[in-house]
Design goal:
Elements lengths: L3 E3 L2 H9 L2 H16 L5 E2 L8 E5 L2 E8 L4 E9 L5
Parallel strand pairs: 1-5
Antiparallel strand pairs: 2-3, 3-4, 4-5
Family: Belongs to the RelE toxin family.
Pfam families: ParE_toxin
Organism: Candidatus Wolfebacteria bacterium RIFOXYD1_FULL_48_65
Length: 83
């Protein structure tokens, strides 16, 4: 089963701002997420219900909707300010 990746406009803008090399790294990470979104790290506390995966030096923060097979990307941010 392949999950559909949804990038809101704000996340698309964040992605476009990245250096080309890093942007490609994030895109590859998103492609991998479509195959196995549970490979990321489940977040806790105020970020409960969200997941994080590394695309060094960035983090992709997302939610998983198992019923609709959807991964909603919430944020793409540098690791120092991702949370």
């Amino acid at each position: 089963m392949q999950y559909r990746i949804i990038l809101p406009k704000s996340v698309q803008k964040e992605l476009e701002k990245l250096d080309k090399k890093i942007r490609m790294r994030v895109i590859v990470t998103l492609q991998e997420l479509s195959k196995d979104p549970f490979a990321g790290k489940k977040l806790q506390g105020e970020h409960a219900g969200q997941w994080s995966v590394r695309a060094w030096p960035y983090r992709v923060i997302y939610r998983i909707n198992k019923g609709e097979l959807v991964v909603l990307v919430i944020r793409i941010a540098h690791r120092q300010g991702a949370y």
